[in-house]
Amino acid sequence: MATDGPNLRPGELEISTQDEKLWRQVNPGWVHDGRVSSQLFRPTPKDTGEVSVTRSSLVTPEAAHQHHTGTLGYASVGVFCVEVGEVNEAGLRVIDDAQVDDGETRPPAHAYVDYKLIDSKKLQQRRASILRDKAEKHGWQYGPMKH
């Protein structure tokens, strides 16, 4: 179930289905000694506070990975996930922006973990670490690194 929330653009919906998994692509540079760093869920300046994920209710982890690497040409060694409820527990929300009409092309079933209201880099880091820890408990969902 998704609802309109504060500070959302037209076409954006906050995802409230707590057990929905969110696929996150793992950049090869984020894996150190076999462990994924918190960079997995930490926004970079180009993210403008939006960490991209893909909704499991609409796309498989394999299809999300294929689109990310094949269609978009980005590097990924596999897919990790967190659940919407875990993101909410970390004090963040998940926004489905697949229907936003702003001229940008988005991957199918695109959503993002919203860090826009967290100004402190230290708080962003802490929340990214919490999400990485949750994702590690789920383990690899797809890709060469999956055991």
Question: What can be said about the biggest beta sheet?
Answer: 7 strands, antiparallel
Mean pLDDT over the full residue set = 91
Q: Provide the helix percentage.
A: 10-25%
Characterize the overall form. globular
Count the beta strands. 9
How would you portray this structure in words?
This protein is of the alpha+beta class. 24% of the residues lie in helices and 23% in strands. The chain has one domain (2-138). It is built from 3 helices and 9 strands; from the N terminus they run E-E-E-E-E-E-H-E-H-E-E-H. The model has no long low-confidence stretch (mean pLDDT 91).
SSE order and pairing:
Layout: E1 2-3, E2 13-15, E3 21-25, E4 31-32, E5 35-36, E6 50-55, H1 61-71, E7 79-83, H2 84-89, E8 93-96, E9 110-114, H3 121-138
Antiparallel strand pairs: 1-2, 2-8, 3-6, 3-7, 4-5, 6-9, 8-9
Compact overview of the structure:
The chain is an alpha+beta fold and 147 residues long. The protein is built from three helices and nine strands, in the order ββββββαβαββα. It has one domain (2-138).
Q: Can you give keywords for this protein?
A:
alpha+beta, 147 residues, globular, 7-stranded antiparallel β-sheet
